[in-house]
Design goal:
The protein is an all-alpha fold. It has helices at 7-35, 39-65, 85-112, 116-146, 150-160. Residues 2-147 form the Ferritin-like diiron domain.
Length: 184
């Protein structure tokens, strides 16, 4: 149905790898926070890991729906060693900024190829990235203000970044359904 040599489809397959890698990176970050006895941050980052996985599976579903052969790629290496919570949040903010650049490139590729369905599909991801970068930017500011008193960070996350808010009804469908945190 669709051109298998499409630059947009190639970039989307590459983005699936980036999204799965981001999911694993968020898992590594969550485990670090869990080990540091920071349950609010850990829960937030575990939820982010699932969200990134769902983003990848949404892209898989898009390719399936458009009769494009899907190959699930391997993952990039993730970082597991951190010096501090600030180090963690700086990493995830940088990751979200990179993903924003990648999503923007995808939207541009779809537009340049005249792939209006692909361009429309990417609009939700563009909106999502604005939210993700803003959220992590705010969290980094809070971490820096809190200094060594991470109870302030935990309180902020519990109060302002509640997990389990549900699934965005405008999100693209995920292949295999949306994964959620048990009990969330």
């Amino acid at each position: 149905m669709n051109d298998p040599s499409s630059t947009f489809h190639e970039l989307l397959t590459e983005q699936i790898r980036h999204e799965f890698t981001a999911s694993q990176q968020y898992t590594a970050v969550a485990v670090y926070c869990d080990d540091e006895d920071l349950p609010q941050l850990a829960a937030h980052f575990y939820a982010q890991a699932l969200e990134e996985r769902n983003h990848a599976m949404g892209m898989v579903q898009y390719l399936l729906d458009n009769d494009v052969q899907v190959r699930i790629p391997g993952l990039d290496e993730v970082r597991n060693d951190f010096k501090s919570v600030e180090d963690v949040v700086e990493l995830v903010l940088d990751q979200e900024k990179r993903v924003t650049d990648q999503i923007t490139l995808l939207a541009r590729a779809a537009r340049d190829q005249g792939d209006y369905l692909g361009e429309q599909f990417m609009q939700w991801y563009l909106k999502e990235q604005v939210e993700e970068v803003a959220s992590m930017t705010t969290l980094l500011r809070i971490v820096r203000r809190a200094g060594d008193n991470l109870f302030h960070v935990e309180d902020f996350v519990a109060r302002e970044m509640p997990g389990g808010a549900g699934t965005d009804p405008t999100a693209p469908p995920s292949a295999g359904g949306v994964a959620t945190l048990a009990g969330a």
